[in-house]
Amino acid sequence: MRRMVYLQMRKRVEARPGQVLRVVDVTRLMAEKDADVLDQLPVARFTRDQGNYMVIEWMEVVRVIREHDSTLDIRGIGQPYTIVEQKAKTRVPAGLYVAIVWILLFIGSGLAIMNFHTDVSMKEVHQRIYYLLTGVHHPRPLLLQIPYSLGIGLGMVLFFNRLFKKKFNDEPSPLELEVFLYQENIDQYVIDHEKDKDRRKVPDGFS
Amino acid sequence: MDFLDSLAVMVVGLAGGLAVGSGFVAFLTVLDVIPRLTVMSRAQKVVPLYEYALIFGALISTWVDFRGWSASLIPISAVPVGALAGCFVGLLAAALTEVINVLPILAKRMGLKSRIMYLLMAMVIGKVVGSLFQWILF
User: Fold this and answer.
1) A128: helix, coil or strand?
2) Sign of torsion, CA A203 A204 A205 A206?
3) Are the beta carbons of B85 and A148 separated by less than 8 Å?
4) Which of A11, A38, A123, B70 is 20 to 30 A away from residue A54, measured at CA?
5) Quick one: which H or E segment has residue A147?
6) CA-CA distances (angstroms) from residue B92 to A73, A134, A152?
7) What positions does the domain Stage V sporulation protein AA occupy (chain A) (predicted)?
8) Does an H or E element contain A29, and which?
9) How far is CA B44 from CA A146, A155, A173, B26, B84, in A?
């Protein structure tokens, strides 16, 4: 009977430019025998001219393993490709960098809310609400407007469920979900587009 | 002729109200505000109640506004109303920000994924400060 090999492609892996990706880097492999040897077979080289992303398909891994030993019965489990992403140079962003983006967002969102208020004549609306509540015309109903301003912050925090993080621990916040979905979309795009590119050959002399 | 005029005005008013009302609800639905509040208050079974709250809120405030009914309450009664109104606007603002994907893209592009909470707080504090600035100093 032919020996069985089970391959499961990893979802995403990171690689340095020039790194030779071996079977173990892109798949989780289970074999009856010689799993260590199969693990070390080279699949592709991650070169700089391929950009930041590369997709390795299950078929490529199968071909590499079959070249090594064509008697194996190879079975795939799960998704048929792995996305290789270039390892970012630094994982921890510099403090100054964060500070600049922070100030950008801070000023930008402050400006945006003021624009919004002007756009919808929020001042008149506040004066109107204050009159309807108290029967007094007041040009600056701060008693309404200050709680309103603080309420905006509370509402945003509520939306991104920060206050209730402890309570709903297993539910991701909308922002986390959004980041995840954005990443998934990029991955899907990469998979669909990288496949069209010319396939790389397994580099010689790396076995 | 008088009757026809009134009829025409009524038709125009009803049509305008229909458009605005359905637009308002569609807007809230697209922004996922209600589902989020529902999950937050664990009230999946009483979603219709929330729908009624929206409808009656819009209807009653429109009516009160147009009729000019003033309640003659003490000034401090404006505080909870302001806070809740602000909260709602905050929810909308956050939802809009999320829909247009500003933060995920910014975080990814700038490699600030681990600091995304700071970025979020920047927007929240920016909104509060911007709003206070506009009312008090502007």
Assistant:
1) helix
2) positive
3) yes
4) A38
5) helix A142-159
6) 56, 27, 9
7) 3-89
8) strand A27-31
9) 33, 20, 18, 20, 22
The predicted complex's ipTM stands at 0.78
Buried (b) or exposed (e) across B96-122, using 16+ Cβ within 10 A?
ebbeeebbbebbbeebbbebbeebbbb
Selected residues 77-96 of chain A with any CB under 8 Å from a CB in chain B = 88, 90-93
> How does pLDDT run across A74-120, given as a tens digit for each residue?
888 888 888 888 876 655 667 787 888 889 889 999 998 999 999 99
Q: Do the chains contact at B111 and A101, CB–CB below 8 Å?
A: no
Q: Tell me which residue of B91, B102, B117 sits closest to B31, measured CA to CA.
A: B91
Give the model confidence (pLDDT) of B23-80 as tens digits: 988 888 888 788 778 877 777 788 888 888 989 999 999 999 888 888 888 888 899 9
Q: Give the relative orientation of helices A142-159 and B78-99 as an angle to the nearest 10 degrees.
A: 40
Q: Enumerate the domain spans of chain A.
A: 4-90, 94-192
Question: Which one of A113, A128, A144 has the shortest CB-CB distance to B93?
Answer: A113
